[in-house]
Design goal:
Elements: E1 3-7, H1 11-24, E2 27-32, H2 35-45, E3 49-52, H3 62-73, E4 77-81, H4 86-93, E5 99-102, H5 107-135
Helix pairs in contact: 2-3
């Protein structure tokens, strides 16, 4: 069962997302409402995926948090946000997200985006492993 961390500062939205994830068969390893808390929980739980709101509490936003989560811990991030303006999209693209879901979203959209992100991450890591083995010969 894949482990997912939810980064969302709205409690009602976070609980709704967590419920849906459990219905989809995922293990929710935690919830964070700030970037700092998200990074601590990534270190602690090593989730398979992070669902990240862009506008969260604290001095660092979801995009900056995603840079750390993927850049330092190699954990894929899917953005879940109400923002789809060009400036936000440009900033988010620079973090190589594994998905971008605009709120409000359907269960099907959330489920398929998560599934594709996890598959893409597995495939990418498997290819990296093969390249590493091939280059060591």
């Amino acid at each position: 069962m894949e482990k997912i961390l939810v980064v969302e500062d709205d409690t009602i939205i976070a609980l709704t997302i967590q419920g849906r994830l459990k219905e989809f068969g995922y293990e929710v390893v935690g919830r964070a409402s700030t970037g700092e808390d998200a990074i601590k929980k990534v270190k602690e739980f090593q989730p398979d995926l992070v669902l990240m709101d862009i506008h969260i509490k604290g001095p660092i936003d979801g995009i900056q948090t995603a840079e750390t989560v993927y850049g330092f811990y190699n954990i894929p991030v899917v953005y879940l946000t109400a923002y789809s303006d060009e400036k936000t999209l440009e900033r988010a693209q620079k973090t190589s997200p594994f998905g971008y879901v605009v709120k409000p979203f359907s269960d099907d959209t959330l489920r398929t985006t998560i599934k594709m992100a996890i598959l893409k991450d597995r495939d990418t890591k498997e290819k990296e492993k093969i390249r590493t083995l091939a280059s060591s010969d």
